[in-house]
Amino acid sequence: MSISPRRAGVALAALTALLVSGCSGEPERSRPTPSSPAPAPSSAAPTPTAADPAARAAALVATLSDEDLVGQVLMPYAYGSSATKVSPGSAAGNRALAGVDTPAEMVAKYRLGGLILVGFSADDPTSGNQETTNVDNPKQVRALTDGLREAAGRLPAGPAPFLIGTDQEYGMVTRITDGVTLLPSPLAAGAAGNPALTEAAWRAAGAELAAMGVNLDFAPVADVLATRSTVIGSRSFGADPKTASAQVAGAVRGLQAEGVAASVKHFPGHGLTAADSHTDLPVVGQSRAVLDRTAFPPFHAGIDAGAMAVMSAHLDVKAIDPGTPATFSRKLLTDVLRGQLGFQGVVITDGMNMAPAKRWSPGEAAVRALNAGNDLILMTPNVGQAYDGLRAALKDGSLPRTRLVDAVTRVLTMKFKLADRPAPALSTLDSAAHRKAAADLAAAAVTMLRGRCGSRLTGPVTVTAAAGRDRTRAALAEALTAAGVKVVPSGGTVVHLVGYGDGSKDLRADATVTVAMDTPYVLAGAKSPTLLATYSSTRASMTALAAVLAGKARPTGRSPVPVSGLPATICGT
């Protein structure tokens, strides 16, 4: 087949840059419609001359039409818990979002590079931009991901694995919760201070995500918690850049060892501001020197650990590009992230349905994000408008073809790095080995900030909790009983639990023990003679807490954030 001089130039540029020999491509295809699916890959498509992922990516890029190139940089959400069969409400949502009925049709119509699965809980600070929930249980998720891959496999870019991502951070932001091993929060891992435990736990997490067909995790959070941010909070590994760096690196290694790409976020550092980028454009007012010393080290550590992706944030970084959200800042993404931190992988936007990105139309926002240096556009509020805007910009030159080819080559390179790994069986989920990895990390996290180290509760215990935490209260009561501590409904020694969103009004003056299951700041106002922190409310964390209360384990954790008037620990240094 012959190709136009312009397309030949694109192919030659991509292949020369990656030291691969040239190959011929296919003519541009017309945009498919739901009734006219995208054509299958040509049997005449060239075979890469090497197994190297970059070489395979460059060879595939050379065969793709404009429609395919544009589709590969889009990663929207979709409505429905199945790829092909959805409820009338989900079909209506997909029609408003993308002009199709089902997720599979969305993949086919827009030649998508990937899809994000969403879901949220009551405590999730990101729930405001989660338009739908399409994760129910592991079996359903695996069926959904299988269906999406079947649809994507018929596309010209089908030889590269379809990207299916989700925000499985553990702690407050955990999209898939039923039937999986739940790790303690990142802040708990920071308290444990043992990167080897973190790596083992996140390796278990990676295996379970892979078993469900998820190959991209929008985690770990690399934000240093320099402020009392409720939107970041226990999603962070802590306030110390050095500690956070080691933890981020461990999480990256664990995930990617199991064939799940890690996306370190939110660059250049959401922990330096308390504002919420879902609704506002937070201002990061610190100097460049502070950024270099505080915000950037965990991202650098994630990059050094081999992170395949970095997520950009909707932040106004005054010291580098004032007034421009980092997502749309070439200075931050191209000059700093790539040029100074040396990142060569895939840059992914934070949700483009968040307020700071919606100041522009979906098409213009997508073009601006790509031109700034992003490679994947996440969660556009309108797939058709983003797709058409990118094609129009490619045609009129406002999106340079070389920038689009570079982005797609990076995306496909990441995909080929994830290729050729069979998905583990669903039976690996919540296995004994995985539960042990989570339990070990949770046990190492428990911290005593006031009290007598090594002491145990005597007499009957009554477990209480702030409103809405009945399930966690019951889990602790069950764990205490198993540890040999008598639990009574009332009249016993009070152990009181507080968690995400709780404040001084949620404390109990008569509690002998107060336990913080999220950020520990609230403990500064507690009057209890014993103060403990688990930073997490998982069953593993409650079991670890029960062991400490029963005197069977020592609380060896250290608070990874400063708490006014309290030490990081009273148990050791």
From TrEMBL:
Pfam family, one: Glyco_hydro_3
Region span, Disordered: 23-51
Stored InterPro entries: GH, Glyco_hydro_3_AS, Glyco_hydro_3_C_sf, Glyco_hydro_3_N, Glyco_hydro_3_N_sf, NagZ_Beta-hexosaminidase
Biased composition (Low complexity): 41-51
Recorded coiled-coil stretches: none
Keywords: Glycosidase, Hydrolase
Catalytic activity, EC: 3.2.1.52
Keyword Hydrolase in annotation: yes
Domain (Glycoside hydrolase family 3 N-terminal) ranges: 102-413
Reaction catalysis annotation: Hydrolysis of terminal non-reducing N-acetyl-D-hexosamine residues in N-acetyl-beta-D-hexosaminides
Name of the molecule in the record: beta-N-acetylhexosaminidase
Source organism (scientific name): Micromonospora fulviviridis
Lineage: Bacteria, Bacillati, Actinomycetota, Actinomycetes, Micromonosporales
